[in-house]
Amino acid sequence: MHKTQSFPVGLVAGLVVCLFAAPGFAGDLDAGVSGKGRAGTPTTESSSSGCPQNADGTFCWMSPDIGEAWASGYTGSGVSVTVVDDFMVQGLVDADLGRGTQRLRHGEWVAESAGMVAPGANMFKHDFSDESSIRLQDGLNVINVSYSVTQPLSQHPLEQFVDAPRVGTAVVTQAAGNDRIAIGAPKEGDVDELAVGLIGAPSAIFVGALDHNGTSGNKAGLARYSNYAGSNPEVQNQFLTVGVEGDKTGLYGTSYAAPVISGYAAILGSKFTSATPTQVTNQLLDTARTDTLVNYNPATYGRGEASLSRALAPVSIR
């Protein structure tokens, strides 16, 4: 069988990580990962972390919008988030998302991030070398993909990534990548075939990283490593950005931007319980902010910086 070359797109201490996928299956998320389908507002936990927890239960790297959503009872309950990533091969990395320093693999950090943003969601993990299909759950499904694929998708065991957002059966969030190039552009002769396949898919979102969570008084810029939307209007239309505050956590890269948006999608799904994946996707894209960004232009930032508060504001969405 052809061995697929996949590249997780998180940076740790500023370094790009890459690997060859190894076969195997990792099973469901264990007790070490947040997000167990709990309802209600998360409780405050004490820790000796260098990333202190806020009074509303959020952590230092999170947007204040998350605490407001939790206070309103929207934590992702009833939504399933599947993180497809490396849970077996890549080396362990020390970082701190607010519960003290932990040593986890790339996929575990990605899953931890999504689960902390949406602690009420049902969380699953799927090793990207596993050739079995991802089983969609009842209710809204969100699939997080924080890596790229350089082989034709027909040779990749999980080509369903493209099918799901094209037919609208799941929200798919893909990390934009860390090569400082436009989505879909070649790098040293290689193209991210997964990204190319997702262009134009109605419920797919590309996620770039900002250097911090922006505000109108403290605008954010695109992180120095992040890929950007580029000149393709289709890509611009489905590109969002969110802050990755690696100076607080030790985790840099668009790998850790994508699970924030996955968490946002789950939170929206817990309010708009009858919304389709495409409706949730459009709500996130249509409510993005541009006033929080330095020199906003769609070729850099796509639709702008994701705004959970704006996305949650309506009584219903269409």
Automatic annotation (TrEMBL):
One of its GO terms (molecular function) is serine-type endopeptidase activity. Residues 137-298 form the Peptidase S8/S53 domain. Keywords: Hydrolase, Protease, Serine protease, Signal. InterPro entries: Peptidase_S8/S53_dom, Peptidase_S8/S53_dom_sf, Peptidase_S8_Ser-AS. One of its GO terms (biological process) is proteolysis. SUPFAM superfamilies: Subtilisin-like. The keyword Transmembrane does not apply. Residues 1-26 form the signal peptide. It holds the Pfam family Peptidase_S8. The active site is at D85, H106, S255. Belongs to the peptidase S8 family. This is Subtilase family protein. It comes from Rhizobium loti. The lineage of its organism: Bacteria, Pseudomonadati, Pseudomonadota, Alphaproteobacteria, Hyphomicrobiales.
